[in-house]
Amino acid sequence: MPERLPRIGVMGIMQELYDAMLPGITERQAAYAEEVAAQLAGVAECTVPAPVRTRADAERTVRAFEEQDLDGVLVIMLTYAPSLRVTRALAGLRLPVCLANIQPDPAVTPAWDMADMTYNQGIHGAQDTANAMVRAGVPFEVVTAEWRGAEFRERVGRWARAAHTVTALRRLRVGVVGYAMNGMGDARFDEAALLRVLGPEVEVIAPGELYRTMTGLPPSEVEELMAAEDELFDVDPRLAKEERTDHARMQLAIERLLVERGIGAYSTHFDAIAEDGRFARLPMAAASALMAKGYGFAGEGDVLAAVAVHAGHRLAGDGHFTEMYAMDFPTDSILMSHMGEGNWRVGRPDERVRLVKRPLGIGGLDDPPTLLFRIRPGPATLASLVSLGGERFRLVVAEGEVLDSPELPALEMPYGQFRPDSGVRGCMDAWLRAGGTHHMVLNLGRHAADWEAFCALAGIEFHQV
Questions:
Q1: Measured between alpha carbons, how far is 130 from 145 in angstroms, rounded to an integer?
Q2: If we measure between CA atoms, which residue out of 200, 204, 396 comes closest to residue 307?
Q3: Domains parsed from the chain with CATH numbers
Q4: Is 242 exposed, middle or buried (0-12, 13-18, 19+ CB in 10 A)?
Q5: Taking every annotated instance into account, which residue ranges of this chain make up the domain L-arabinose isomerase central (predicted)?
Q6: pLDDT at position 99, please?
Q7: Please, are residues 280 and 215 in contact by the beta-carbon 8 Å criterion?
Q8: Residue 143: CB partners within 8 Å, gap ≥ 6?
Q9: 3-state DSSP: the chain helix, strand, coil percent, rounded to 5?
């Protein structure tokens, strides 16, 4: 699942009125829209059609954007244009919208004439258009900035990433192997409400289908995967060939099912695997490897957390599934880990990831090969997707730092110590009051502003602790 830049349609709006007064103005302002798009190179792939000057232009342009499978629409006022010409098109638009309140020239100078006034009069067109969208109930972002500056790139880039994430979730299918863990209340939700609000569709994968897919794999694919692991990881010499072969078959079978069904995120529950009776071990290393390839994942059948990891991949890169294991008051930090699943791409660059043989009593099966690493020190962000009942969803977010903490030699699962900016006491008090779940996504870097932009576009609550 290769990552890509957000794909954005640039909708430049003007009107025919000025053509007679300023011959060539349409071509001039169209070139300006192309320059704006070029300024966004590296943060978005922009599609720039001809300027919109009539209602028919607007509706044709919007249809084309939706047919091109874009992530969002950036509206630019090339001159003033009456909003009623675009109201219907924007009211029915299914893509996230950002209104760029910009103009070609950053400063009003004594050299300006009526032509310059006309070229730079987008501000009142933006007001008319924004008013129409507000009255139509269309959510949108606004960016007022000098379009040649870094602030413009940064803010539009943040909106574009959020738009890419929103549209990705609208198309997402989440696979659940077996069922969700019994009694785990914070993962419970209304599937239809999740589909209506955010878009993900849940599909159950029978363990028997996973088993049949495993048994049908050609040996060459299994050998190829193990050879790749030998190159990527330090492989524990205690791992027998049979253990590695079985693990590789599980990983390849899961991925094949995901590809065949168009599934972008999944979750397995240890009881569903163990109770089936046909599996020798749990697919721990498989989860880590597939997260590293861009799939969302969560343990124990937790669809909400799998959606959060998928969103973290798209919004900030390299989403890592984890949970808060224990508090460490002397360092004001929280030990982050899980049973053995984690995105190895967030591991420390100065330590090779290890593929280890480790005992795991949970599930009552044989030892599962596990990818072991420590999370890279530096800024990091946690995010938890919360169902509040009905169609209310909330994202609880904490920014902080992964510490360069001592090794924990007996801990044979991915781990790291996260120190929240608000401190353990303040963060956890606020996290619990907000209903933050015990499974979450971790991304390297500070991304609270990105998550806030996502929540605004997705129509869900944002709560930073």
A1: 16
A2: 200
A3: 7-170 (3.40.50.10940), 182-464 (3.20.14)
A4: exposed
A5: 197-312
A6: 97
A7: no
A8: 98, 99, 100, 101, 102, 152, 155, 156, 159
A9: 40, 25, 35
For 6, the 3-state DSSP assignment is coil
Burial of 175 (0-12, 13-18, 19+ CB in 10 A): buried
Longest dimension (CA), the chain: 82
CB 303 within 8 A of CB 187: yes
Q: Cα–Cα distance between 335 and 385 in angstroms, integer?
A: 20
Model pTM?
0.94
Q: If we measure between CA atoms, which residue out of 282, 287, 288, 299 comes closest to residue 440?
A: 299
Q: Radius of gyration of the chain from Cα atoms?
A: 25
pLDDT, tens digit, 9 for 90 and up, residues 42-59: 999 999 999 999 999 999
Amino acid at 93: L
Mean pLDDT in runs of 10 for the chain (465 residues)? 83 92 94 97 96 95 94 96 92 94 96 94 94 92 97 97 97 94 92 97 96 96 97 97 96 98 96 93 96 97 97 97 97 96 97 95 91 98 97 98 96 97 98 98 98 96 98
Would you tell me how many other CB atoms lie within 10 Å of the CB of residue 410? 5
Residue count (the chain): 465
CA atoms within 13 A on the CB side of 100: 34
Eight-class DSSP state of 280 = S
Structure tokens at 371: 């990818």
pLDDT given at position 361: 83
Alpha-carbon distance of 152 to 100, in angstroms, equals 9
Beta strand ranges found along 115-210 (DSSP E): 141-144, 173-177, 201-205
Q: Do 445 and 316 meet the contact criterion of CB atoms below 8 Å apart?
A: yes
**pLDDT of 67-103, one tens digit each?**
998 999 999 999 999 999 999 999 999 999 999 999 9
The CA distance from 225 to 254, in Å, is: 13
Run of H or E residues at 326: strand 320-328
396 membership: H or E segment, kind and range? strand 393-402
Rounded CA-CA distance 142/146 in Å is 13
Q: How far apart are the first and last CA of the chain?
A: 32
CA torsion angle 233 237 240 246 (round to 10): -10
